[in-house]
Automatic annotation (TrEMBL):
One of its GO terms (cellular component) is SCAR complex. GO terms for biological process: cell migration; cell projection assembly; cortical actin cytoskeleton organization; neuron projection morphogenesis. The lineage of its organism: Eukaryota, Metazoa, Chordata, Craniata, Vertebrata. It comes from the Eukaryota. This is NCK associated protein 1 like. It holds the Pfam family Nckap1. It comes from Cyprinus carpio.
Length: 1096
């Protein structure tokens, strides 16, 4: 009886086992052909003699007679046993697989089994799969060149360790010898099985030619079209051979070609066999064995696949559109989807295996396809639709199974005149299983598992297909038809994913990486294919389906390859998209730049000249285009470069719509994030490039111009949201936030660094030399009128507008970095000032005690050295602090505009704090206020910088003494400023031509910071400075004939500026030591000079 042989169970188990063994053989071949992965025993020079000896003597290896060759193996026998054990066991698996298959095939022959793909589909398919897998295993075994060395080395090590040979070695050695020429040996083996194999193959003689039609025949039959017959659109798709309709053509070709290769005698005796063989041969040059291993069938071939792919592209596009619009059609037309996927997969696999092995031909383009992306895209869309509408498919087929299939099957069973007990039990269970299904179970969220139903159907096929079966399935074609249809319907309930693996699995592309990348490259160059490019990385998410439990070593290799391909594809798509986006932004930025106010002067001048009837432009002069002329078109057919870029952007962004995310080996991949990442990298670079910083010439873009350019870019980037669902605001915030740091997230310089360097090296360095003057009246820096023309206009960078733009660009973080660099320069000057004080310590102590004694001061003044140096360094500090206060003011205005709700509490808190209170609390509040751009009585950054200065372990009292003497030094040095002809006060600028008016800022800030660090009263010490300075300056009035009198009035003004800017001094204090009348006369004199200059 067929029941006891368990043919169905053995076929299923051996097919799975055989697939695992085949994959394992392929893995071993790859390991031993890869020099990097090859075990060390085969590469070491010391083992070379042993390997050669084993190969020469195999399988009769005498370890005693060959001890001189095998000595190296004896030394490392444990390592050899451990390293080669898995490979040795794999070869034993092959031997065991052969024994079991041999036994099963003999049993099938003894039972005289009947095979017909249209009747007992599952039995026939499993039988043919087993034959092909069996032949493929031994073909792959023959391709492992080192198999004898592997087994021989292992057995020698085993014998050295255990004293006797491994029990399996003799049979393994014999098997290797027998299968050195696999096809010859296999054809001998299959001689007795020719009848069964030929019978199974000939059942394809109707199916295979029907499936192997040309594109024109498909088109005339309106294959896969739901719109061809609208009246039948809602009718269920039924046929006598449901499973045959989506059976892979590649699988059938493998059955036919390998099957007749094993049983070639039937080709001479049977015309149908020969016709089927010839038809299969015409399908291609190569046959896939496993992974990227192919079998070269013949040399000549006529290519028709290009037309097939063209047809399938359009057919799948139509099918996808209809099903997207009406997903309920997935119920009755599910078969169409799997047919479409199977046909498309066959064409893709044909292209891949032939593109890897292109024959010498005059038309190599037949083996390439730049439009493959569209076909892959629609395949993925169909897969997505099946996943999205799983409930629709299940609901439809549940009702079909319970209300139609169960009833028809029951009627057929009732009409049977012979039904043995075992078969009766199985068929009754079929009816009861289908009848018990209810929508309540589906709506309750229960998972269906109908694998037992399908396995029972396979068992029934095995029972009823033997030669002496009481119930012969071939006599009941209606039963086979209904059961095959019901089986497909059950698969729609619980194994759609498994069916997708059969019909749409493209995981073989993982092993043809070079071809896969080439196909992607060809598609990416075709503009019409760019909207489908994301199909390539999405396909990588299916590569995990090709793994097998028998070969866990493949997991890491396949995983790494999958992620590598996926990431490279997405990066390339993102790079192309990013390039187009930034080109559009650059174009819009150029258009926006034409509208900047700085370009209006020429237009105004032209209009004015025209009004005054001045000389008109010459005939040869080309009139300048006005902004906006690019939008005027005389013909709608004219396509501008911007139009082309927008079209390219539309195509590229459409490719991201295939899915929001997908998973590759437990890694969640979000395509849009790759685009954001690319945009972030490129936008950072673009912003830095827009700054146009030239370190050698100290040229840089105006902050206001850069801000306008960035705003134009940001406006254009926001339009990207119309094409693709990405968070542009997050992107812009990330990029601009990175630009407020010294380095971006990739370690490159930002505009914060560039502008910091430029203001320090370009503007402030020249301001320190008085080539650029600080102008308090207009709140900016201006160039001096010198013979050497400056490379830039300071007022274009360091005016209110420029500094506001700078604050907008680099924000509080960037300005903090700028301030830290400014502080470093100030501290270096303070250090030099302390050295000067130390050098003149004794003289300054005496001057501090005798500042009211003119005669003593006159003598001491002659002993004092470095007065000009002190004032020069203090002026530099003043210039830097003046620039900093302008920047802080600009930042405060920007902060007020952007976040007034934060600024108001900060202002209130700052107003409540007094410098006389707890200094730590005061400084912490001032630090917060300063970071927000608010002016503070004590500069917290300067306090922190001075506190961190190296003082050579000097005490606070010593530091306090030096600070006091520094103020005395500054005070007694003021008269020397009169000797400088540039020390005159300019009313127009509100300052002096040599920037000495910045001394007021320097004195106030430095004194406040240093005395705060030393915990001393700033007010008292500044009053002392005021007395000394007043006394020294009053002595200038007594020297009427000396040179110092020339700019005396301008120097008096500095004293007034110090008091005016100081939060610790008042006009009352000044009047107690310096007559107000002198200040009034001084201002009158400097203003007279201004009036005289204006009149002249």
């Amino acid at each position: 009886m067929a029941y006891q042989f368990k043919l169905a169970e053995k076929l299923v188990i051996l097919n799975d086992r055989g697939q695992g063994v085949l994959i394992r053989m392929n893995h071993i071949k790859k390991v031993f052909t890869d020099s990097k992965r090859r075990p060390s025993y085969f590469t070491e020079k010391s083992n070379e003699s042993a390997v050669k000896y084993i190969n020469r003597k195999f399988p009769n290896i005498d370890i005693r007679g060959g001890s001189q060759h095998l000595s190296s193996i004896q030394k490392q026998k444990s390592a050899v046993l451990e390293g080669l054990h898995s490979y040795y066991e794999s070869f034993i698996d092959v031997m065991e697989f052969r024994d079991n298959v041999y036994e099963l095939l003999n049993t099938i022959d003894a039972c005289q089994c009947f095979f017909d793909i249209a009747v007992n589909f599952d039995l026939t398919k499993n039988y043919l799969d087993l034959i092909v897998t069996y032949a493929s295993v031994f073909y792959m075994l023959s391709r492992i060149d080192d198999k004898k060395a592997i087994v021989g080395l292992y057995n020698c090590a085993y014998e050295f360790s255990n004293g006797n040979s491994d029990p399996s070695f003799p049979r393994l050695g014999q098997m290797f010898i027998e299968y050195d020429h696999p096809w010859k040996k296999l054809s001998e083996e299959f001689g007795p099985h020719t009848k069964s194999v030929t019978g199974a193959l000939l059942s394809l003689r109707m199916l295979y030619p029907r499936r192997n039609l040309s594109a024109d025949q498909w088109r005339s039959a309106q294959l896969l079209s739901l719109l061809a017959s609208p009246a039948a659109m809602l009718s269920p798709t039924c046929c006598d051979t449901m499973a045959c309709e989506y059976l892979s053509t590649e699988v059938m070709e493998r059955w036919i070609l390998i099957g007749f290769l094993l049983c070639h005698s039937s080709l001479n005796t049977n015309a149908d066999s020969q016709n089927l063989w010839k038809t299969a041969l015409r399908s291609g040059l190569y046959l896939t064995v496993i992974r990227d291993e192919v079998l070269n069938i013949h040399k000549l071939h006529a290519v028709t696949q290009q037309m097939n792919r063209n047809f399938l592209r359009n057919a799948l596009k139509e099918l996808t559109k209809v099903l997207e619009d009406e997903p309920a059609l997935l119920g009755p037309k599910a078969l169409y989807v799997f047919m479409a996927l199977s046909f498309s997969r066959d064409e893709v696999l044909w292209l891949v295996r032939h593109a890897e092995n292109i024959p010498k031909t005059k038309t190599p383009e037949d083996y390439a396809d730049s439009q493959l992306a569209e076909l892959l895209y629609h395949m993925e869309k169909l897969r997505t639709l099946l996943a999205q509408h799983r409930y629709v498919i299940q609901r439809y087929h549940l009702q079909y199974l319970s209300q139609y299939d169960a009833l028809v099957l029951n009627d057929i069973i009732q009409g049977m005149y012979v039904c043995p007990e075992e078969e009766s039990v199985l068929m009754s269970s079929f009816v009861s299983t289908l009848s018990a299904m209810s929508l309540k179970h589906l709506d309750a969220g229960e998972e269906f598992d109908l694998k037992a139903f399908r396995l029972d159907w396979l068992r029934l096929q095995a029972y009823t297909s033997t030669g002496k079966a009481p119930l012969a399935l071939k006599d009941y074609p209606d039963l086979a038809k209904v059961m095959n249809m019901a089986q497909f319907h059950t698969r729609m309930m619980d194994s759609v994913n498994e069916l997708l693996c059969e019909t749409a699995d493209l995981s073989i592309l993982c092993f043809h990486a070079r071809v896969f990348e080439k196909l992607f490259s060809q598609s990416s160059e075709d503009v019409s294919m760019q909207r489908y490019l994301t199909a390539f990385p999405v396909i990588c998410s299916h590569f995990s389906q090709c793994l097998h439990p028998l070969c866990p070593e493949e997991v890491s290799t396949v995983k790494n390859q999958s992620l590598k391909l996926c990431v490279s594809f997405l990066e390339e798509i993102s790079r192309q998209t990013c390039t187009v986006v930034l080109e559009i932004c650059a174009e819009q930025c150029n258009l926006h730049e034409k509208l900047l106010p700085k370009h209006s002067a020429e237009t105004i001048s032209t209009a004015r000249n025209k009004k005054l009837k001045k000389s008109l432009p010459k005939k040869g002069d080309v009139p300048k285009e006005k902004p906006g002329t690019e939008s005027l078109r005389k013909d709608r057919a004219i396509v501008t470069n911007l139009d082309k870029m927008h079209q390219a952007l539309t195509e590229l962004c459409a490719s991201y719509s295939i899915c929001a995310d997908f998973t590759v080996f437990k890694h969640i991949i979000v395509p849009a994030e790759f685009l954001l990442s690319q945009l972030e990298i490129r936008l950072n670079k673009v912003i830095v490039q827009m700054a146009n910083y030239n370190q050698s010439t100290h040229e840089i873009a105006r902050p206001s111009d850069l801000l306008a350019g960035i705003q134009a870019y940001v406006t254009s980037l926001h339009s990207l949201s119309c094409y693709i669902n990405i968070d542009v605001t997050r992107l812009v915030k990330n990029v601009l936030l990175q630009q407020t740091q010294p380095l971006d997230s990739y370690g490159s310089q930002t505009i914060t660094t560039l502008y910091t360097n430029w203001f320090l090296e370009g503007l402030l360095r020249q301001a320190s030399s008085a080539l650029i003057v600080h102008c308090p009246t207009t709140q900016c820096f201006v160039n001096q009128n010198t013979e050497n023309e400056q490379s830039f206009h300071a007022e274009e960078y360091a005016d209110i507008c420029g500094l506001r733009s700078l604050a907008e660009l680099i924000g509080p973080y960037g300005l903090k970095f700028l301030n830290e660099n400014l502080m470093w320069h100030i501290i270096s000057q303070v250090g030099e000032l302390k050295k000067l004080v130390s050098d003149n310590m004794d003289v300054l102590v005496q001057m501090r005690a005798n500042f009211e004694n003119p005669d003593a001061m006159s003598d001491l003044q002659k002993k004092l050295t470095g007065c000009e140096n002190v004032l020069k360094r203090m002026t530099i500090i003043g210039v830097i602090l003046s620039f900093r206060s302008m920047v802080q003011e600009a930042l405060g205005e920007i902060m007020d505009r952007h976040c007034p709700f934060i600024m108001r509490p900060i202002k209130c808190l700052k107003d409540l704090i007094s410098p006389e209170g707890d200094i730590k609390v005061t400084l912490s509040v001032y630090e917060m206020a300063s970071a927000a751009g608010l002016p503070c009585e004590i500069d917290p950054a300067l306090v922190s910088a001075i506190a961190n200065m190296q003082t050579d372990n000097s005490s606070i009292e010593d530091e306090f003494k030096i600070t006091c003497l520094l103020l005395v030094f500054i005070a007694v040095s003021l008269p020397t400023l009169c000797l400088d002809p540039n020390s005159f006060y300019s009313r127009a600028q509100g300052g002096h031509q040599n920037n000495i008016h910045c001394l007021a800022t320097a004195v106030n800030h430095i004194a406040a910071a240093m005395f705060t660090v030393q915990r001393k009263n700033t007010r008292i010490q500044l009053q002392e400075f005021l007395k000394v300075a007043s006394s020294i300056l009053l002595q200038l009035g007594q020297n009427v004939e000396r040179m110092e009198i020339k700019n005396r009035d301008s120097i008096y003004v500095i004293l007034h500026m110090i008091v005016e800017q100081s939060p610790f001094l008042s006009q009352d204090m000044l009047e107690t030591c310096f007559p107000y009348v002198l200040l009034r006369n001084a201002y009158r004199e400097v203003h007279k000079t201004f009036i005289h200059t204006m009149e002249s």
